[in-house]
Amino acid sequence: MSELFRGAGVALLTLFHDDGSIDPGATGELARELVERGMRAVLVAGTTGEAATLTNAERSALITATRRAIPAGIPVIAGTGAPSTRQAAGLTGEAIAAGADAVLAWPPPGGLDMPGYFKAVAGAAQGRPVLAYHFPRVYPPGIPVTALAGLPVAGLKDSSGDPERLLDELAHYPGATYVGSSALLAMAGPMGAAGALLALANVEPERCVAAFAGDAGAQRDIGERHLAASRGGVPALKRILAEDRGDPVPVRIG
Prior knowledge:
This protein is of the alpha/beta class. The chain has helices spanning 24-36, 56-69, 85-98, 114-124, 145-148, 163-172, 185-191, 205-212, 216-221, 223-245; strands at 7-11, 42-44, 76-79, 102-105, 130-134, 155-158, 176-179, 195-198. The protein has an 8-stranded parallel β-barrel, surrounded by 7 helices. The longest helix is centred in the C-terminal third of the chain and has 23 residues, at 223-245.
């Protein structure tokens, strides 16, 4: 299977105005800055982008703004997972219309009819690549490695942070594996993962790139911020970004 991209990409934060409304311009500008600092793909409206708080129109506005802000050669991936097949297919169609180059979908609750769910998402994607999202802590039960090859997807993002699971994927899954945990970068890159889609890359893009290339020092250097973001979620990550910028970064969840 062809790879959507290679290297480190960012699971983009959604930036909001002080009143809680989305700021597509600032979000697109953040994406542009991160691409200039080494990101090879941008995931919009994923878990890190507070997708659960976004309306369909807000998702589309963010996708369009991000696509306009970054070079054409950098794929914009839209998060389109949903509790039902109908919702996921609808979000996927809207994302493609808004300019997404690919989509990322978490599996249906309980893993029921996973092939049918991803077939509907792939149909709505109109030939664009679909990535499956394995994050069982948030979207249980996750996707068994043995099921991946039978799904109409180009690859997966694995945010489990489980090194044994990653080894299983790299050994037995023929599609592209993108690691979603910044704890495993120095393992994933040298072992042959196609790339990474990382929340921490919003604040540590250069070190994430270096760690994925096998730099153990860079992996250690991002450790404290990785742990803070892992434990505190999006609010913690936005606090780090606010400290770096010297300006507040509003959050909808938390």
